Amino acid sequence: MLYQLAQSLEHYVGGFRLFGYLSVRAILGILTALAFCFVFGPGIIRRLQILKFGQVVRRDGPASHLAKTGTPTMGGAMILGAVAIATLLWADLANRFVWFALFVTLSFGAVGFADDWLKIVRKNPRGLSARQKYFWLSLAGLAVAVAIKLTARSAAETALILPLVKDFSLPLSWAFVPWAYLVIVGSSNAVNLTDGLDGLAIMPCVLVASALAVFAYATGNVKFATYLGIPYIAGVGELAVFCTAIAGAGLGFLWFNAYPAQVFMGDVGALALGAALGVVAVLVRQEIVLAIMGGVFVAETVSVALQVLYFKYSGGKRIFRMAPLHHHYELKGWPEPKIIVRFWIVTLILVLIGLSTLKVR
User: Fold this and answer.
1) Domain annotation covers residue 331
2) Distance between CA 191 and CA 246 in Å, rounded?
């Protein structure tokens, strides 16, 4: 909105040209989202407390989590509000990539909201049934995957790109749709599985989103894309504003979610953030790099899959003391803050490795 307003005013006041720079608007995006959380966060938390939207803790989880019962949840609504407002204010609203990203984020957030609502109203920690949840997530994921395919204006927008391999581009044609769907839905559920400790999931989301902002900026700039040997996709640079909005909203939320947490994001935040990272990776053609940078999310998901399979085919034996992976370390006696910070450090290392693929080809 403000971007369009600045464009109309720059003919009268030259200073408004400053807002035409993507880098400036990306910085304003992170600051706007951060300010939104700081200003409205305390009120949102108080409202959640008044409505008694408290966390319902599963009885089969670590005993230390029982003390968290009643902590306000659904705080992810704060994140989504901050991301949406910052993006709408500073991004080019004529850009289709921006709307793809917003649609995925808000639609997955809506499914998460319904899941959280059922958990709170019915006091059932399982919320929506797995079938219901995956139906609605799949519907949204497939819808946006088809929309991206139908509106693609260049072959690069639906081709598979491999990091570290120069000039490799494999056209996917309609195979792009199931591929994009798997990345978006898979990323959404991976972040949701990781969201089990105070601040554990949000900081990796901030780090990965920040890195994706760099990829979006470079991919949407013909000079940088040519120099780095990555596909140039016109207009995709606007996603840098969306990504920095996620980073700002995440940092603002972490202010309240840091150990010991005053509020949890709930599925409304975790499902939406994971899907947001997935759709951006799809749009900038860096799905494999997302798997590298989000290695913590991948490890958490793989730990659950391995635990289930091994339990089923080994007659009830387990690989981990409990899955997802962070619970395994909890039951080994690691303090919660130590697990959180170490997972953050691992993510930072993986993000730096992911960013290095821009140059190493």
Assistant:
1) no
2) 14
pLDDT given for residue 208 in this prediction: 98
Residue 12 placed within a domain: no
Per the structure, the complete domain to which residue 41 belongs is given by: 22-151+164-292
Q: Cite the DSSP H helix spans in 195-294.
A: 202-219, 222-228, 239-257, 266-283, 287-293
State the virtual CA torsion across 185, 188, 191, 196 in degrees, nearest 10.
Answer: -100
pLDDT digits (tens, 9 = 90+) for 333-352: 999 999 999 999 999 999 99
Asked if residue 265 belongs to a domain, the reply is: yes
Concatenate the DSSP letters of all residues of 191-216 into one string. HHHHTTSTTTTHHHHHHHHHHHHHHH
Q: Name the pLDDT band for 6 (thresholds 50, 70, 90).
A: low
Residue 171 in 3-state DSSP?
strand
Q: Is the pTM of this model over 0.90?
A: yes
| Length in residues, the chain | 361
Residue 23, token pair as written in the block: 């880098």
Phi, psi (deg, nearest 5) at residue 272: -70, -45
Per the structure, the count of domains in the chain is: 1
The pair of three-digit structure tokens given for residue 5, joined into one six-digit string: 């307003």
Residue with structure tokens 């010991």? 260
State the first-to-last Cα distance of the chain, in angstroms, to the nearest integer: 39
CA dihedral 70, 73, 75, 80 (to 10 degrees): -170
pLDDT category of residue 156 using cuts at 50, 70 and 90 = very high
pLDDT recorded at residue 129 = 85
Give a yes or no: residue 194 inside a domain: yes
